[in-house]
Each structure stands twice: as structure tokens, then as C-alpha cells.
Amino acid sequence: MNYHFGRGWTRWSPYLLLLPGILFYFVIALGPSLATTVYSFTDATGIKGATVNWVGLANYKEFLLMGQASKDNLSALGRTLVFCFFVTTIQFGLGLLVAMIVNQNLKGRNFFRTLYFMPIILGAVIQGLVWSLFLYPLGGPMAKFLALFGARSEFLGGPPFVAFAWVIAIQIWANMGTTMIIFLAGLQTIPSELYEAARIDGANPWQVFSNVTWPLLTPSVNTNLTLNIIGSLQAWQLFLILIGYRNGTQVLGYLIYATGFGQTSGSVTSSFRQGYAASASIILFLLVLVLGMTTNYILQRREARIME
Amino acid sequence: MSAITSPKTSTNRRINWGRVLSYAVLILLAVIYLGPLLMLFNTSLKTMPSFMKDATSFATELNFKNFVDAWTKANFPKYILNSLLYTVSATAIYILTAIFVAFPIARGYIKHSGVVLTMFVIALFLPPALIPQFQLILHLGLYNNPIGYIMLFLVNPIGIVILVNYIKTLPKELDEAAALDGCGYFRFVWSVVIPLSKPAIATVVVLHAIGIWNEIIAPTIYLTNKDYYPITRGLIVFQGVYGSNWPTLAAAVLMLTFPMLILFIFLQRYIISGLTQGSVKG
Predict the structure, then answer these.
(1) Spatial separation of the C-alpha atoms in residues A269 and A258, rounded to whole Å
(2) Residue B108: which of A1, A32, A102 has the nearest Cβ?
(3) Domain that holds residue B41
(4) Do residues B82 and B220 both lie within one domain?
């Protein structure tokens, strides 16, 4: 590319002005991200001035292979996958359905789009508190609704799997709007002549969907699946606000935070074990990597098949 | 509008059924999306005894005292000021540095600009930086310090991608013409590129600012001094103390929700374009 803004020392001005941004990026993001690997082989703590020793694979061994704690870790890992599976599939399906509905020429469609998208701006704290109130067990709206059927529930304070299921539901409530918007953008790129042609050929709605909408939506399908899988594997803010660090509900992201920054759960008190937390981070990263790459591989093969 | 409704004569009945079903889904979902907010609003106007007696009954007492209580007891003015300070300063520094990263990448004015861009994107797929970041801030002596906290928010790779994609659409002839007129590099970016990139800059600013404003994990980790709490952390602390007093807590939450909703109506298109552009990536 031709550079027009002078020669000699002035040629360096793009580099000089780029420097702060690059520096921030290296120091705050890329460097620490790569250093996580190094920390995972040490016994680093969160205490300033404490000595840091190289411990090899000890953290990983402890995380995966040692007694009750590893059992808890592995069930947190399993729970992360369950969380990812339900959030991804439901949010994907619902987002697609709603996008197709609000893409029609319906009255008030802009209102509905805005409404479903609204939780995005509120953030995890408000999302969580608003739902805590809605799920107030002593006569809150949801409790009253259940009472109509003679049922009752403690919701977030109930058995772990009930609380866990509610976090899944609220996570979907909070983020379905993003999935919907991305699908909507994809739907709007499909030329209406294709739908006209399909109608003239006498295709029924299902045939229109499977032969026109679905294949042409491939880019948004790929984006949404990837975003949802990676996002839900790493999400845990709503757990923090809705139920706290409770046995039987932890996911990996929360476990990393709790072991790294001190958090009490039942009888287990963890104390700033940052080397150990770093090894858990790497395990979560590998999970994201493996699932992300597998999905990408499958999606790309599918895309190649559709293009034929 | 009229062109869309005309070619639907023979299939009228089936389309109507589809519409009924569509509206049913939309309204059901609307209840799920609005319900929690309406409950929040209603509760914020109730007195505690009335809430205990019947949590969902209509708030006839209009107990505005909840708002006064929440405002004074929760230390809100201080926390909101902190949040504003963090959000504005981190976003301002970020967007300024980001433009000077994005422009030369988009134009190829630096060597290996493609590699530099890839390097930014790669961060999205690397291990979480949480632990080493904490060690860094701790050893810089910036733990529990507003400056250390602001530092955490000076990076946002997706913003760079959005800016690069937008700047690529600006005609390159502008650069040549400006240079011929003797305009320097900095002045060109400052007085030509920035004004022309307003839509993309607005999108990136809005996305980045919302992220900082809503952040809860970073303040929990990095700020232990109450004087430095942003509003998110303040709200959680308030919940810890007044957790059982839902009317007051609801008033506190509502006071933060309402401005966000108003802001959302105005900023919606920037958030949406940010999400769709950031995800398509090109």
C-alpha cells in the first residue's frame, strides 16, 4: 500500500501512534492469556511477596485424579457440558423461531424485537436480581402460578438440579435476543424472489424452510452455534448472582474464580490457590477448544456439502 | 406495504392460522420478558408488611419512601459516580488507541497488517487471562486501586475488527488528496477519519461502555474498598444487607434499570449493528 503522508522520520508516525493500543493489548490481554499456561504449573497464590514454586503437573493431577475434590471438579466439568448443551440448543432453536416470526410483516414486530433484546443491556446483576424477585418462593408470581396446579417449589433455593435448571432458563432469557438478532440479519439477506419461486412451485411451509431458509441461513447458523457454545461454556455470572457457590450447582468458570480468589462452599474453603485455578482455566480452555473446533469442522463440512 | 399484502388471496386461511400462532408465541414470550420487570415495578411501590402479606397484590399504597430509602442507604450517588468514572475514562482511552490501531491496519500503512489483525482476533480463542492479570495488577501495586481497575478495560479485540471493517469502506483517494494538501498523518486521522467513522465509533463505544458498566466479576476481584465500588458491586452489597426487604431492594434495582431501558431505546441500533458486524467478521 502506498503511504502518502511523508517520508523519512514521519513515515514512523503510524507505528508510533499504534504503539499504545498494541502495548495495552500485549500487557493486559495476550501476555496474561499465554501466561495462564505457565501459572498452571506453579503453586502461585494471590498473596503479594509469597514465593512461587514450579510444581510440574501436580495441579492437573490434583484437579483430575485426587479423591473427593476431583470428583467435585469432574462433576463441575460435566455440569458445564450440560449447561452448554441446554443453553445452546434451546437458545438456538428459540432464537431461530422468534427471528422467523418477527421477520414476518406483523403488527408490533419492532416492539417485540426490542423487548426480547432488552435484557442484553441490563447486565447480569439486574437480570439476576429481577429474576430472584420473580421467583420469590413465598407467594411471588411464579410460586402463585405453580399453586394453580397445586405445586410448590423453592426455585433457586430448592434442590441443586432445580436451581441449576432455573439458571439455564434465565441464561437463555437473557441472551436469546442476540441469537435472534443475528438470525434476523441472516434472514434479511435471503432474496424474496426465492420465496416467491418456491410458492409458485407449490412448496409447503416445511419445504420452503428446509430448501430455502435453512441452507441460505448457513452463515448465521455457524455464527450462532459457535458463539452460543463458547459463550455458555464460559458463562457463570448468573450463578454468582442467583445462587452463589453452592454444592451441586458449580460450573467450571465459577470453580476457577472460587479457587483462585477465595470462596467458601459448605465445608470446603479455598484460599487464593491461583496456580491451581490456572490449571482449571487451561482445562476449561481445552474444553472450549475441542468443542469449538469440532463444531467448526462439522459446520464447514456441512457448508461445503450445501455449496455443491 | 400494500405490495406485500396483495398476492395472498388463495392461501388466505392457512396464512391466518400462521399469524395467530405467531402472535401467540410472541405474546407468551412477551409475558416472560415483561413479567419480571412488572413485578419489580409493583414491588418497589409496596410496603414491607403488604409484601409479606401478598407479594403479588397490586401496589395501591404507592410507597415512594422505598426509593428515598434505597437512594440514601445504598450509597448510590457515590457508586454511580464511580461507575461513570470507570466507564467514561476506560472507554475514552480505549477508543482513541483503537482508532490508531485500526486505521493503519485497514489501510496497510504498517508492515504485516494482516498478521497484526489476526493477533488481535486470536485473543478471543486463547485461555482466560484471569489469573495472570490479577498477578500483574497485584505486583504493579494497583490492586484495590481505580487506575488498576480501569486498566483492565483498555482492550477489546471485537471493537478493532468492527473499526477495521468500517474504515476499509472509506475511499482511499481521501488519503492521497489530504496528503497532497500537506495534511500530516495524525491530523488526517484526527480530523478526517474520526468524523467519517462516527457510526462505527458509536457502535464500538456503546458496546464497550455497556460491558464496563455491567461488569461484576472484575470489581468483586479487584476492589475491596467500598469507596471504589461501581454500582453493580454496590447493588450486590445492598442485596446482602437488605436481601429480605424486597420493596426497598426492588426500588434500588428499578432506579438502575429504568435509565438503562431509556438509554437502550436510543442506543439499540448501535448495539445491534455491533453484534451483527462483530459476529460476521468478513
Answers:
(1) 9
(2) A1
(3) 2-65
(4) yes
